[in-house]
Amino acid sequence: MLPASIREELRAIVGAKNCLDKQEALVAYSYDATPMQQALPDVVVMPKSTTEIQQVMRVAARHHIPIVTRGAGSNLCGGTIPVGGGIVLVLSQMNQIVEIDEQNLTITVQPGVRTVDIHQAVEAIGLFYPPDPGSMVISTIGGNIALNSGGLRGLKYGTTKDYVLGLEAVLPNGEVIRTGGKLMKDVAGYDLTKLLVGSEGTLAIITEAILKLIPKPQTQRVMLAMFADMAQAARSVSDIIANRIIPGTLEFLDQGTIRVVEDFKQIGLPTDVAAILLIGQDGEPQTVDRDMEQIAAICKKNAAVQIKVATTVEEADEVMTARRSALAALSRMRPTTILEDATVPRAAIAPMVAAIQEITERYGLQICTFGHAGDGNLHPTCMTDARNTEEIERVEHAFEEIFAAAIDLGGTITGEHGVGIVKAPYLEWKVGAAGMEIMKGIKHAFDPHNLLNPDKMFAKQSRNRVVVQRA
Amino acid sequence: MLKEALEKKLDYDELSNCMRCGFCQPACPTFRETGYEAASPRGRIALMKAVADGVMEPDKDFVDQMNLCLGCRACEPVCPAGVPYGQLIEQTREAIEEAQEHPWWVKAVRRLAFFHLFPHQKRMYQLGGLLRFYQRSGVQKAVRKLGVLSILPKQMREMEAIIPEASSKGIVDYFGGTVIPAVGERKYRVGMFHGCIMDVLFNETNRNTVRLLSEAGCEVIIAPDQVCCGALHAHSGEREQARHLARKNVAAFHKADVDFIVSNAGGCGAMLLEYDHLLAKDALWQEKAQWFASRVKDISEVLTRLVEPKEWQSLSQRITYQSSCHLRNGMKVTKEPVSLLQAIPGATYVQLREGDRCCGSAGIYNLVQPEMAGSLLDEKMGHVAATQADILVTSNPGCLLQMKAGIHQAGLEGKMEAVHIVDLLARVQQEEKPLSPLE
Ligand SMILES: Cc1cc2nc3c(=O)[nH]c(=O)nc-3n(C[C@H](O)[C@H](O)[C@H](O)COP(=O)(O)OP(=O)(O)OC[C@H]3O[C@@H](n4cnc5c(N)ncnc54)[C@H](O)[C@@H]3O)c2cc1C
Ligand code: SF4
Ligand code: SF4
């Protein structure tokens, strides 16, 4: 419990209606989209400006109160769970698009703007902001930046980090820094912009962002290729890229996922094939047509049983929607859905998929896999029940082995969801002891009193690396 | 008490099925208005679960937050996990109702309305007669002149101004029988659900419904023993009474042995459609309730199958459509009303921006949550005005009244009228010959 005097100080800054400590508010900001994680904050503060954030930060610094910054609370790593109590700082009221600069092709936004609102605003004038996380209808740009979110278009267009040109942020001492700018080139000192992207709210509070825009591609086409065998699908992915075609989207659904998505959306997906690739290309009409033909040929060569090219905008839309709801649709099967995002170099997709299958069977679990196959970012998704402790234990072991397998294949424990609480014990597996030390040093340089999102990223204890004998 | 009642009533499995993805939030009007997590579907479910888990006491804030929910169920179709939010909020309200000690006068009014009025159709007609007397005899004029109404809250005053002329007779009285033959070849035998308020305040819409059905080739049975659907009861936490009414309706239509049970009010239809859930634990009625629920259709669904718009009269006006939340999210009927409207020769159909968003009427919501309802209606009327439509079509009596109030408030009277879809279709479809019953 915070002393009443501190709550009074906070209330004086943001106003009583934006500083809540009633039970209802504490519960409402105690969770995010991460399964099995919940902790109550002491107070919920909803600032309206950078100045208010600075003042709140100063109060927190003076009294050593942790601050957890929150956008839409849609992250899957426990990033906004106030494990140590303190202040949850909700940025949803800072949701204005400040400016669209058509000369420099940039958009300047407050952190609480929803990703989809950015898309709509710029596409209305023929521009394009490519990062499109599956959660874009709710996620905020602040959250996207803090987690360096990816999306379906990551393969061709990159992820959030490739579009952030400049940031304004409040440091743990209450000072404001501005990094980068409307600049395509800038080598003045360390690249703090890139450092803050993906910093998970542990270094600074992002209060404004300048994002890069590109011209909107003229046309867009999508197709589905279906395979009787998972390995053939994975090989097609590698072959498409080896043939130097970079599709706008290259998504992968396994059979379990296909069945569930079809059940949810009824868009006529065949539920008897082992895997579906959803392949999209955008750009100049002729190039798109040529690429689509070549891709179809490659899939045929890899024994695709059926290839379906969406002919209308509506069909294309439905196909994309189905993929976007994959994770969500899987959640219909069992009460608890645990989604991971182990990622491997794209050439290693086939062995990774095989490893996931083998691990799943060995632990007697239900894990469906889908994901951004073009960039090797797979989402093995486990359907389970949090109330079954024995099963949850098996799930944990299985995922540990999946992370280990990804690293063995030259991959990583998380491709886009972030470390947060849930992946913290495994971070050292990826970055090594020396990597951990340097990261902790960076954290200390920004936030010596460990006020911003404490307990995230750096676990009290790392997990011992499991050594698995594989044939 | 409330805590125990909630623990008993809430379906814990469904609470756990919510994976907190937040996909429901953009659809929720109260979240859009407030931006406050607790005022979102994900937030409300989390609050319910927190109570069930013992993390939080169901205090006054909890109850207020549950009451702020419109019950529009816009959060359901967008929920990937298929969480039946509508059922969860009803369970919560039932528990709140059970645990609540109302002041004596509220109790009296509730008893009167929920137990002695709505369930008894005869009394509804009597009340309709009184209202009609008030409206016609000059009393209404006198009352308005005297300014007596100013003692009522604003919302009630506005309602008084737009309430249509009441009827003291139901459709059965009008037609003088309960079986209306099909015009031409009989394609279906359908049961007409006339509703309690519908039949008093929107009697003409009911008559038009029967006419359209009959001319489309349906033999229409106005099952004589039918009663109020129980939606108001269920939404206000009186689920037991709702079950009681459900059994009566199931029996009435089962006896009539119909192919479909047709409703012209989204709110009623969605309730009827869920009788199988409502009576799921009632061994005696379960099977018949399933029979019933599987036959419930909205009038637009039946007409889309049967009518020939080619024969309709031309109507050179601009039409827009505000969907009824329960028709859309409860009955999942979205395309049919629009395709009927688009088929009217000569008319221009303009899509209403956010026509799928609640207008704030939501049963008696606009009376108990005037502030939220008011701001939702203001926003709605902005979009409505932008369509420059001559006719604003809806598909539920509550929405129709709210739209009339909105037109009144926005100063659009004379420029735009709010019409039930059935009445509009009756306008463009020439009447063949006056209907008379079979018996
Ligand atoms: C159904 C579903 C699908 C998803 N699909 C994808 C996907 O395809 N790709 C992907 O990458 N992710 C995906 N996610 C994860 C998640 O939506 C993203 O990580 C998203 O970027 C989170 O945004 P948010 O606004 O909800 O952030 P929050 O969850 O509120 O916060 C996330 C993190 O960012 C920090 N933070 C938020 N705002 C700020 C700020 N202004 N300054 C500093 N720190 C801040 C928080 O402290 C926290 O650590 C998905 C999630 C769901 C539920
Ligand atoms: S969309 Fe469904 S599962 Fe997701 S938060 Fe809302 S109710 Fe829960
Ligand atoms: S029923 Fe309507 S108001 Fe209530 S939570 Fe769902 S969308 Fe929001």
UniProtKB/TrEMBL annotation, chain A:
InterPro entries, A to Z: FAD-bd_oxidored_4_C (IPR004113), FAD-bd_PCMH (IPR016166), FAD-bd_PCMH-like_sf (IPR036318), FAD-bd_PCMH_sub2 (IPR016169), FAD-linked_Oxase-like_C (IPR016164), FAD-linked_OxidoTrans_Type4 (IPR051914), Oxid_FAD_bind_N (IPR006094), Vanillyl_alc_oxidase_C-sub2 (IPR016171)
Name recorded for this polypeptide: Putative FAD linked oxidase
Coiled-coil stretches: none
Keyword check for Iron: no
PROSITE patterns in alphabetical order: FAD_PCMH (PS51387)
Family: Belongs to the FAD-binding oxidoreductase/transferase type 4 family.
Cofactor(s), by name: FAD
Keyword Flavoprotein found: yes
Keywords from the UniProt entry: FAD, Flavoprotein, Oxidoreductase
GO terms assigned for molecular function: FAD binding; oxidoreductase activity
The FAD-binding PCMH-type domain, residue ranges: 37-216
